[in-house]
Amino acid sequence: MNTGNPHAPKEKTESTMSELLAGKTAVITGGAQGIGLAIARRFIAEGATVVLGDMNEDAITAAVAELGEDVALGVRCNVTVADDVAALLAAAVDRFGTLDILVNNAGITRDSTMRKMTEEQFDQVIDVHLKGTWLGMKLGADIMSQHGGGAIVNMSSISGKVGNFGQTNYSAAKAGIAAMSKAAAKEVASKGIRVNAIQPGLIRTAMTEAMPQEAWDSKMAEIPLRRAGEPDEIAKVAVFLACDLSSYMTGTVLEVTGGRHM
């Protein structure tokens, strides 16, 4: 089910790469798979070196092997643990000399109706998304301020705008990321650090491909562009927010949804 997107944008060739992130170093949490890995690929294509933080060590090994050890480093990281996040960020500085970009992308789902959802399921999702993003910004901004500034990109979700059935935990966390990004942007702007967020809609990943066809069709019917997004379409927006093309943007939340829920 769920065939590919014949109308998805064509990839630009290597010869046309503009290297918008040349010489930059980026840390990407949840970076060894899904949207995080797509962002890593796109950042490297644009000239950056990347450090991938992830809990899945097998995925880390595979991702670094694909991307190349000269431009990518993988570190096991639990984003809810401050020492892990600090070690991840330090690894970027130790290996590549700086920290220019931070993408707080790590996330989980523990879907259930509110009546059936356990406290543990609620806490897990809030901790990974909301606390994890907060720790990344808190610790990352301190390092960036010592290196002349930087760009932070936080991954929210359209669920944080409209709320999804069975996702009181996830919707709350993603809404919190949007608001927290705006608050943080005000705090760190004077240090030359920009903070922006992305709200993806239905993106074609292993997780969404596993949805029942009825659920998939229901979501597709809400999308004016009549297709799901591809992970690289989120990655390209992350590049925009990470590079100087968005130099006068901070505290923004960009919806990348094909028009869904506009």
From TrEMBL:
The keyword Membrane does not apply. InterPro entries: KR_dom, NAD(P)-bd_dom_sf, Sc_DH/Rdtase_CS, SDR_fam. Residues 24-206 form the Ketoreductase domain. One of its GO terms (molecular function) is oxidoreductase activity, acting on the CH-OH group of donors, NAD or NADP as acceptor. PROSITE patterns: ADH_SHORT. Keywords: Oxidoreductase. This is 3-oxoacyl-[acyl-carrier-protein] reductase.
